[in-house]
UniProtKB/TrEMBL annotation:
Protein's name in the database: AarF/ABC1/UbiB kinase family protein
Pfam families: ABC1 (PF03109)
Source organism superkingdom: Bacteria
Transmembrane segments: 494-514, 520-539
SUPFAM superfamilies reported for this sequence: Protein kinase-like (PK-like) (SSF56112)
Domain ABC1 atypical kinase-like span(s) in chain numbering: 81-334
Family: Belongs to the protein kinase superfamily. ADCK protein kinase family.
Organism this protein belongs to: Nostoc favosum CHAB5714
Keyword Transport among record annotations: no
Entry's Gene Ontology molecular function annotations: kinase activity
Keywords: Kinase, Membrane, Transferase, Transmembrane, Transmembrane helix
C-alpha cells in the first residue's frame, strides 16, 4: 500500500493529512480501531489539497464540478480553490522556449516580456511580439511538471484505493473517477490538445442566429509555433470581465445598456455551446472572461471543456422546462433517463424528494430564483437516491453556475428567465422542426404517407396470422420462476405417486395369479421397487417442509 512506502513525497502526504487532523488517518497509523473511512470535513479537505500542491488543487477543482458526488458544502468550499502558484524564473522558462522553437529565439520574437502575466500549476503565460509585429501570448509549460504529475498520479491512485473502501467510494466508483482525473491531467500536459479545443470553439462561435458573432472573440492559434509544451496564440488586449470600467468607455454607449447587451450575449453564447453545439467552455470564471478595449467579449483558456451528445441535450432542454414549471414528476423521469446506473430506483421516493425540493420555489418570483442553484439541488437529489449520472453533468452544472454567478455580479439587474425564455422557445422549435422546417415537414409527410400505405397490409397480415393460428406470443413475466418450480415439483411427485401405485397394483395382480417361481420373483421385485420409490417420495416430501 502506498502509505507504507517511504519516499519523501509520500511522507509529505502523510504529514499533511496528520497536520490537518483527518481522524481516520490518525487511528489507522497509530494502530487504533479504524472505523469505516470517512472523507474529511469540507474545510479540512480544502486545506489538505492546498498543502499538497498544485496538482491536488486541480483535483479539488475537478471535484467541485461533481455535485452528483459531493454535497453542497463540499462543492461550495472546493469552488474557492484557485490555481495560483509563484512564477518560475525567466531563466528556466527561456530554456524551455529555446528547446521548443524551431528557429533561434531572436529570429522568432522581436521582444518577450520576462515577467509573466499569469502563473498556474501547469504553465505560465508571457506576452511577446513576433518578428512580423503581431502580438502573441506564450503559454509555456513549467519545467519538470511532467515528472511531478507522474509521481502525484500514483499517489492519487493510492488515495483512491483508500477511499474506495468506504461505502461512498464503492457507490460512486471512486477509482474510476481517479482514473478519469489522471487521464485528464496527463492530457493537459499536451498543449496541442488545448489548441485544438480553442480552434473548435472559435469555429463554433463564428456563426449563430442568436447573437452577432463579431462581438465574441476566441484567440487564434499560431500552429507553426505551437508544440506540446508551448502554446502560442493571438494576444487579446483587455481586462478581466468584472474589472471592466464601463462608465469610462469610449464607445458612447450607456453603461446600463451595455451591461444588459453583454449579459444577453454571454447567455446566448453559452446556450449555443451547451444545447446546440454540444461542445462547451467548461470554466467561465471571471478570470477567463475578458472585456476587450474595443468593447468585445473574449473567452480565454480552453483547457477544460465539456461535451453533450444530442440525446443528453434534448433531455437537459426538457429539464429546463420542467424546472421552470416546477414539475417534480417530470424531473424524476428525466433524471432516470440521464442515469447510467443499473441500480433499481424507487420512483415514488425520487418524485417526493423533487417535490419537496421544488415546493419552496412555488411562491418565489421567477426573477428571484437562482437557476443554477436549482440545477445543483437536482443533482443532489439524484445523489441522495444513489443515482449515478454521467460525469459531464457536473461540468454542465458548474458551467451554468459560473455563468449565472458572473452575470449577476456584472449586471445586478439580471432577470435570468427573461434571458433564457426566448432561447428555450427556439430550442424546442429546433427539436420539433429542425434547422430546416420545410425539410422536416416533408420528411414527416413522407413518413405519414408510408405509414398509411403500409398499415392496411400490416393489419391484413396480422389478421391472417390470428385466424390461421400461426401467431406466436413471447411473454416474459417476472416473479414466476418460483411458481413454475413449485408446480414442476408437485407434478413430479404426483407422477411418482401414480407410478408407485401402479407398481403395487401390478405386483398384487401378479401375486394372486402367480403359479410359477418366476412370477413370484417378479411380484416380489415389483413390491420392493414400489416400496423404495414410496419411501423416497415420503422422505423428499418431509425434507421439503411442504407436507400439508
Amino acid at each position: 500500500m502506498f502509505l507504507t512506502q517511504t519516499v519523501p513525497r509520500q511522507r509529505e502526504i502523510l504529514e499533511v493529512f496528520l497536520r490537518n487532523g483527518w481522524d481516520y488517518m490518525r487511528r489507522l497509523l497509530t494502530g487504533g480501531k479504524a472505523d469505516e473511512p470517512q472523507l474529511p470535513t469540507p474545510a479540512v479537505l480544502k486545506n489538505i489539497l492546498v498543502d499538497l500542491g498544485p496538482v491536488y488543487v486541480k483535483l479539488g477543482q475537478l471535484l467541485s464540478t461533481r455535485p452528483d458526488l459531493l454535497s453542497a458544502a463540499y462543492i461550495e468550499e472546493l469552488s474557492t480553490l484557485q490555481d495560483e502558484v509563484p512564477p518560475v524564473p525567466w531563466s528556466e522558462i527561456e530554456i524551455i522556449l529555446r528547446k521548443e522553437l524551431k528557429l533561434p529565439l531572436a529570429e522568432t520574437f522581436s521582444t518577450v516580456n520576462p515577467i509573466p502575466v499569469a502563473a498556474g500549476s501547469i504553465a505560465q503565460t508571457h506576452r511577446a511580439t513576433l518578428i512580423d509585429g503581431r502580438e502573441v501570448a506564450l503559454k509555456v509549460q513549467r519545467p519538470g511538471i511532467d515528472l511531478t504529475i507522474a509521481q502525484d498520479i500514483a499517489l492519487i491512485q493510492g488515495i483512491a484505493d483508500l477511499v474506495a473502501r468506504t461505502e461512498f467510494g464503492q457507490t460512486y466508483e471512486i477509482k474510476s473517477i481517479a482514473e478519469e482525473f489522471t487521464k485528464a491531467l496527463e492530457a493537459e500536459l499536451d498543449f496541442t490538445r488545448e489548441a485544438g479545443f480553442t480552434d473548435q470553439l472559435r469555429r463554433n462561435l463564428s456563426k449563430s442566429r442568436w447573437y452577432d458573432p463579431t462581438q465574441i472573440v476566441v484567440a487564434e492559434i499560431n500552429w507553426e509555433l505551437t508544440t506540446a509544451k508551448l502554446l502560442v496564440m493571438e494576444w487579446l488586449d483587455g481586462v478581466p470581465f468584472l474589472s471592466a470600467d464601463l462608465d469610462n468607455n469610449n464607445n458612447g454607449k450607456d453603461p446600463a445598456v451595455e451591461r444588459k447587451e453583454i449579459t444577453t450575449l454571454l447567455f446566448r453564447v453559452f446556450f449555443q455551446q451547451l444545447y446546440i453545439d454540444g461542445f462547451f467552455h467548461a470554466d467561465p470564471h471571471p478570470g477567463n472572461l475578458f472585456y476587450l478595449k474595443d468593447g468585445r467579449v473574449a473567452l480565454l483558456d480552453c483547457g477544460m471543456v465539456g461535451r453533450l451528445d444530442p440525446r443528453t441535450q434534448q433531455i437537459l432542454t426538457e429539464m429546463l422546462l420542467a424546472i421552470v414549471d416546477l414539475d417534480a414528476q417530470r424531473c424524476a423521469q428525466l433524471t432516470l433517463q440521464l442515469s447510467d446506473s443499473a441500480q433499481p430506483v424507487i420512483l415514488s421516493r425520487l418524485e417526493n424528494d423533487y417535490d419537496r425540493m421544488l415546493r419552496k420555489y412555488h411562491n418565489v418570483s421567477l426573477t428571484q430564483i437562482n437557476f443554477s442553484q436549482i440545477i445543483y439541488e437536482v443533482l443532489q437529489v439524484a445523489r441522495n437516491n444513489k443515482i449515478r449520472l454521467p460525469s459531464n453533468m457536473g461540468l454542465y452544472a458548474k458551467t451554468l453556475a459560473n455563468l449565472e454567478g458572473v452575470a449577476r455580479t456584472f449586471n445586478p439587474e439580471l432577470n435570468f428567465f427573461d434571458e433564457v425564455k426566448p432561447l428555450i422557445t427556439d430550442l424546442f422549435r429546433r427539436q420539433l422542426l429542425g434547422d430546416n422546417p420545410v425539410r422536416s415537414l416533408l420528411r414527416t409527410a413522407l413518413d405519414i404517407k408510408s405509414l398509411s400505405l403500409q398499415s392496411p397490409r400490416q393489419i391484413e397480415l396480422l389478421l391472417d396470422r390470428v385466424t390461421s393460428e400461426t401467431l406466436q406470443w413471447n411473454l416474459s413475466l417476472r416473479g414466476l420462476d418460483g411458481v413454475r418450480r413449485t408446480m414442476d415439483d408437485a407434478a413430479n411427485r404426483l407422477s411418482f405417486s401414480i407410478l408407485v401405485g401402479s407398481l403395487i397394483m401390478g405386483a398384487a395382480i401378479i401375486s394372486t395369479r402367480a403359479q410359477t417361481t418366476q412370477l413370484s420373483f417378479l411380484s416380489t421385485t415389483l413390491f420392493a421397487v414400489a416400496s423404495l420409490l414410496g419411501l423416497w417420495l415420503i422422505i423428499s416430501t418431509l425434507r421439503s417442509g411442504r407436507l400439508r
